Amino acid sequence: MTYIVAEPCIKCKYTDCVSVCPVDAFREGANCLVIDPEVCIDCDLCVPECPVDAIFSEDDLPEKWAEYLELNARLTVEWPEITQSKDPLPEADEFKDVQAKREMLDESAGDN
Question: 3-82 has which fold?
């Protein structure tokens, strides 16, 4: 089992989760994070740190976000590792409660 970053992260990219990850499993995209399933040790430390509740265990991933299992696996090989927290995106507060953000996902790599 692994943990998955789902849709609520898009356009927010809070990185509170990154600082508690003991194995540096997070990868950074332009407007979202993902978790590398090959690195994640299923420790659960990141889940309570996410202010938008975007992180789920693979077994608890809501059906409406099932595609994020594949997205995390695919994007993790394209995006760079992020190991330290940084400021969220400037528009994070504006987008933290927005629903249906999938079309807003920028699949380009982040600038860590």
Answer: Alpha-Beta Plaits (3.30.70)
How is the chain split into domains, by residue range? 3-82
* Strand pairing category for 33-35 and 26-28: antiparallel
Nearest to 84, CA basis, from 32, 43, 44, 28: 28
pTM above 0.85, yes or no: yes
**How many residues comprise the chain?**
112
Residues 61-74: pLDDT tens digits?
Answer: 999 999 999 999 99
Closest C-alpha to 55, from 75, 38, 35: 35
Q: Judge whether residue 49 has pLDDT over 70.
A: yes
**Number of Cβ within a 10 Å radius of residue 54:** 24
